[in-house]
């Protein structure tokens, strides 16, 4: 809650592979339909942030992750997004629910994609951009 307005609780996942590439999804739905971002979504009622991160990653990417520490928090419009560092522990990469495409990107691949507003500045400030 901020200044009398309620924000929708959301989570995002910061996932790097062994080569320093970052996991990104191309969003199907607004906000940011057609643009690329880190995977994530809304926290369902009764769900913890950790549960939401695991569910959202499985739905959007086919990957099973183990959530780690909070990397940072950002408010985008009505969404209050807590982004967690995650480690892949299983699954097979594929675009799923709410994702038109999903891929690991290095710095050059990242720079070539149309990204959601503010992503580069936020990830850069947190020190988690792809290598």
Description:
With 131 residues, the protein is α+β, with helices and mostly antiparallel strands. The protein has one domain: Alpha-Beta Complex (Nucleoside Triphosphate Pyrophosphohydrolase). β5 and β6 form a beta hairpin. The model has no long low-confidence stretch (mean pLDDT 94).
In brief, what are we looking at here?
With 131 residues, this protein is of the alpha+beta class. Helix content is 20%, strand content 40%.
Number of strands: 7
Radius of gyration based on Cα positions: 14 Å
Q: What CATH architecture do you see? A: Alpha-Beta Complex
The CATH topology is given as Nucleoside Triphosphate Pyrophosphohydrolase
The string of secondary-structure elements, in order, is EEEEHEEEHH
Question: Helices, strands, pairings?
Answer:
Blueprint: E1 8-15, E2 22-27, E3 36-37, E4 40-42, H1 49-61, E5 63-76, E6 79-91, E7 99-105, H2 107-111, H3 119-126
Parallel strand pairs: 1-6
Antiparallel strand pairs: 1-4, 2-3, 2-7, 5-6
Core attributes:
single chain, 131 residues, alpha+beta, Nucleoside Triphosphate Pyrophosphohydrolase, three-stranded antiparallel beta sheet, 3 helices, 20% helix, 40% strand, globular
